[in-house]
Amino acid sequence: MNRRSFLMSLSTLALAQVLSGCGTVDRQTLKILLLKSSIPAQAMGEFRKQLDNRAVLNFSPAAQLDELFRLLQQWKKPPSNNSGRRWNLPGRNQETAPSNLADLVTLGNYWLERAIAQELILPLDPTTLEQWDNLPSQWQTLVRRNAEGKLDPEGQVWGAPYRWGTTVIAYRADKFRDLGWTPQDWSDLWRPELRDRLSLLDSPREVIGLTLKTLGHSYNRDRLEDLPELKDKLLALHRQAKLYSSDAYLQPLLLGDTWAAVGWSTDILATMQRNPKIRAVVPPSGTALWSELWVRPAGPNPVNTETPPPASALANQWINFCWSPEMVIQLSQLSNAASAMLLNRDRGELPPALQTDGILLPTAEAIANSEFIEPLTPEIAETYQALWREIRLS
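That's the Extracellular solute-binding protein sequence above. Prediction below.
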């Protein structure tokens, strides 16, 4: 089997109902809504072998993370407001009543603060998670939050990270061969050879963030007005750009219309497997990190998050399975994103393909210099948007 055959496709997920016997009375059920292709398909079969034969597994896919966040919001509405509504998921037609609430949902870390503040999710109990202490501190910090969703080292645990990736620079190796150099860090995006040869993400946080990083600042800097050099630097980068896109940034690179592109590691790793001309680099000065998490939907009923009801035994068992040593290798090899659990393991003990894949598993230096993008306050977000509009209209 090749790598693609192991990935969980939309149609496979929609049919992934692992049932046994007749009827479902008194049977344990685990309902999970997840981002499609984020879990290897064979993992469900392996997980099923660990369960009682009467257990029911129900996995449903969504194409986009924001779709899953909107579903959490929809579940939070009182049942009377949900009348007639359905899950807006391909191949699914289920009611949004509390009885159909999923046990676990994939959520991107960017939505975590809002999900907590809007009371869309419940905290997890780390004492039930066997590998919690092996989760790298950067990821433990990411999911420890207060009731407003702000980072808090004494806060509760609101999610279980199961894979992560980065923002990287992709480039056409054949186009750079005659130049005698290849992109190595963000600063290379300003080199004159890339004038009108660059694809950038249509995202102010990503583009302003990488520019801040080039100037020695944080992606999450909340004051831009005291950086007069930032605007000039962004204008210079804007002159390098041929286009801005968050979903079609790789097509011009494949066609040779652009020579380099800023994009997300999952997209670029998949493209590199199909086209040997595409190479990539994780900037050692640091980049944006993202992570996908398992979270517990809260549903419409008010719950005391200080003493929430425990997660189901099957939900805890699934998280522990995703964090098991065998599964983290499998997930990292087959889903174009690594498990954070790999970072605390000796790289020399990992399979050779993981040891040498600097995009899937960047250097320790690059990871240490990188950071998760956090939501901004509305006031600070408007300063980002105002600067973005000014740059784009120049």
